[in-house]
């Protein structure tokens, strides 16, 4: 006989399956092997089972006990439906019998082997504890951390309710960050299957896109290329530390941006309309950006007859005001210049028409502008002079 240590995984599973199956068969056979005397000892004081043939008792007992729990519930429910007798308005009773011989409910349960609890709840298809979540301290801390982390890191898709992880992050990076946080709190860490189940259950709207149409960070791509070409473990660890530092810097920048948006929103929401006219808000947070040139009209799929037709080029820029919850789009044709003068014009036009005139009598003392690093449109002397003019006019 082989020792348990010499068994292969397949042999171990086969033996385990055989052992479990034999235990189930032994349990059923032990229940079915109850003698008639044992069953008759459970009958009522009226001795209803004395008039029932022994063969009928054993037949109905084997019919019920040979089934699994789900089949037993279905069999009991069908039996009750077939033996229900109406005795009045919304009143009914059951006929308890074994092969036509009338018995009481106690003797019928003794003959079949069913319990009163099973009889009362055989038609219940939903478990009593279903959808009753019991959130532990570990799970609540994990969900709170993941919600704040993903909100700070992920990019929200404008056309659907989805959040995409940035190109430099993988699921394993989020998993490692989560376990680091749990370890600092003295809590049990999540394994990789548990983490994936957690994300699938509570954050199904967070995706890791295989491809992205947005531009990728130059430093991220450079670090990724260096890591793939590293030949020694020390070099890989050094690149990994640089990736962690870069990730921490960009996360800090995202968090600061969210804090500025929240600060501008709270300052407006804490004052009603009459107060705003007398006490202007202290902060104004604006983000401005432009998209790639759009060929108009857009037709997908493109007909072959019009594939070589020259289409109109349309430039689209957008402004989001977080404090006032305004979103403004600007469209312009290709013959206009779209440099820093155009961006300064859009910024001043929005401030004059949407911020100062309708609501406020003066400009907030702090202005936050979120823009990319494009030197042609944003990071140049024209924009800085425009901001200096706003400061001068206070």
Secondary structure topology:
Layout: H1 9-32, H2 36-40, H3 54-65, H4 69-82, E1 84-88, E2 91-94, E3 97-98, E4 101-102, H5 105-112, H6 116-120, H7 137-153, E5 155-156, E6 163-164, H8 171-184, H9 192-202, E7 206-207, H10 218-229, H11 233-269, H12 273-278, E8 283-290, E9 294-296, E10 312-321, E11 326-333, H13 340-356, E12 366-370, H14 381-393
Parallel strand pairs: 6-7, 8-12
Antiparallel strand pairs: 1-2, 3-4, 5-6, 8-10, 9-10, 10-11
Helix pairs in contact: 10-11
Précis, in short:
By secondary structure, the chain is of the alpha+beta class.
Keywords, separated by commas or semicolons:
394 residues; three-stranded mixed sheet; 14 helices; disordered N terminus
Could you please describe the fold and organization of this structure?
With 394 residues, this protein is of the alpha+beta class. It has three domains: 34-120, no CATH class; 137-257, no CATH class; 283-393, no CATH class. 49% of the residues lie in helices and 13% in strands. The protein has 14 helices and twelve strands. The protein has helices at residues 9-32, 36-40, 54-65, 69-82, 105-112, 116-120, 137-153, 171-184, 192-202, 218-229, 233-269, 273-278, 340-356, 381-393, and strands spanning 84-88, 91-94, 97-98, 101-102, 155-156, 163-164, 206-207, 283-290, 294-296, 312-321, 326-333, 366-370. The strands form four sheets. Strands 8, 9, 10, 11 and 12 form a five-stranded mixed sheet that branches. Helix 10 (218-229) runs antiparallel to helix 11. The longest helix is centred in the middle third of the chain and has 37 residues, at 233-269. The chain is elongated and about 105 Å long. It starts with 8 loop residues before the first helix and ends with a helix. Mean pLDDT is 80; it is low at 1-5 and 271-280.
